[in-house]
Amino acid sequence: MLASLLSSLPVGAPALPLDEAGKYVAGAYVVFLVLLVVYVAIMAAKVQRIERELRELAGFAETRTEEKAEREAEVAEVGGG
Amino acid sequence: MYGKGLRTLSIATVATLALALSLTFFYAPLDADQGFIQKIFYLHVPLAIVALLGFVAGGVFAVLHLRSGDSRWDAYSYVSIHMSVIFGVAVLVTGSIWAKASWGHWWVWDEPTLVSFLIVFLMYATYYPFRYAIEDRERQARYASVFAVTAGAFVPLNFMAVRMAESLVHPRTFATANGGLPGEMMLTFLVSFAAMGLLWTTLVKFELTAKSASGQLKRLRRALDAPAPGGTSRVAPEVS
Fold it and tell me: Do B37 and A32 touch (CB under 8 A)?
C-alpha cells in the first residue's frame, strides 16, 4: 500500500502532458470560479431581499404619515366646527 | 458604515485577480518537475494561507469582543470565520484536484499538511451548530468568541507542528534549502496571495455591509411596527 503510494508521488516524475494536466488545472480554477459565483449569487439574493423589505417599509411609513395627516385634519375640522 | 470604500476595494480586487491570473498563465515558467499542473499552486496555496490567516483574524476579533463587549467585533469574528470556511472548501477541493493530478490519489491520509488542514476545517465547521445552539444573543456571542479564540490559537500551533514534521511529499513554499521559488514564480505567488487577501477582505466587507443593512432594517421594522394611535400594524413578519 505504502510502496504503491510512494511510487505514485511526484518526486522526479515527468511533467504531465499539457492536454492531461490542462483538465486538472482548468478543473481547479473552475471550482474556484463556481464557488465565487455561487457566493455572489447568494449575496445578490440577500441584497434584493433587503431592497424589497426596504421598499415595503418605506410604503408603510408613507401610509402611516398620510393616515396621521388625515386624522389631524379630521381633529382640526371637529374642533373648528 | 461597513460599506465605506467597498467600491474601491472591489476594483482593486478584480484588477489584482486579473493580474495574478495573467502572471500565472503567461509569465510564470513551467515547473521542471510538475509542468503545467503546478499552476494550481498559485490558486491553492494563497487560498490556504488566506483561509488560515482569516481564522486567526476571527480569533483576534473575538478577543476584542470579549474585552470590549462590543457586538461589532463579534460580527467581524463571525464573518471572518464564515469567509475562511468558504475559502477552506475551495482549498480542499483544489488540493484534491492537485493531489489526483500529481499523486494519482484524491486524498492522502499520511500527509500531515492535508490532514491538519482538514482537522482545522472540520473544527471550524462545528462553529455554526455550536453558535446557533445557543438562543440568548449575548451568550451566543460570548461563547462563540471563546470558541474563536481557542480555535484561532490552535491554527498557528497546528501550522508550526506540521512545519516541524518531516515530510517527503508536500512541497514547501518558502523553503530555504535548494533555493526555494525562482524569482518569476515568487512574484506570481506574491501577486496571487495579494489577490486572494484582497478578495477575502472584499467579501468580508460585503458580507458585513449586508448584515448591517439587514440588522438596521429589522430595527426599523420594530420601530415602525409600534401600533400608530388609532391604527393597527400592517408590517409583514420579520424575515430572518
Answer: no
Kindly provide the ipTM of the predicted complex, given to two decimals: 0.81
Residue B35 pairs with which residues in a beta bridge?
B31
Least confident of B185-194, B197-206, B214-223: B214-223
Query: Which set of grid coordinates corresponds to residue B173?
Result: 513554499
**Is residue B203 within 8 Å of B57, Cβ to Cβ?**
no
Say which residues have a Cβ less than 8 Å from residue A30's Cβ, sequence separation at least 6.
none
Contact status of A70 with chain B (Cβ, < 8 Å): no
Q: Smallest Cβ distance to A25: which of B39, B206, B235? A: B39
User: From CA A63, how far away is CA A57, in angstroms rounded?
Assistant: 10
> What band does A16 get if pLDDT is binned at 50, 70 and 90?
low
Q: Residue A62: is its pLDDT beyond 80?
A: yes
Are B221 and A67 within 8 A, CB to CB?
no
Average pLDDT, chain B: 85
Dihedral (CA of B101, B43, B78, B64) sign: positive
The answer, for A58 touching chain B at a CB cutoff of 8 Å, is no
> If you ran DSSP here, which 8-state letter would residue B170 be given?
S
CA distance A6 to A13: 12
Smallest CA–CA distance from A67 into chain B, residue: B231
DSSP B179: G
Q: Please list the residues that pair with B31 across neighbouring strands.
A: B35
Q: Are B36 and A25 in contact (CB under 8 A)?
A: yes
Task: Specify burial of residue A11 (Cβ count, 10 A radius: 0-12, 13-18, 19+).
Answer: exposed
- C-alpha grid cell for residue B32? 521542471
| A20 has pLDDT over 50 | yes
pTM listed for this prediction: 0.81
Q: Which residues of A touch B169 (CB under 8 A)?
A: 9-11
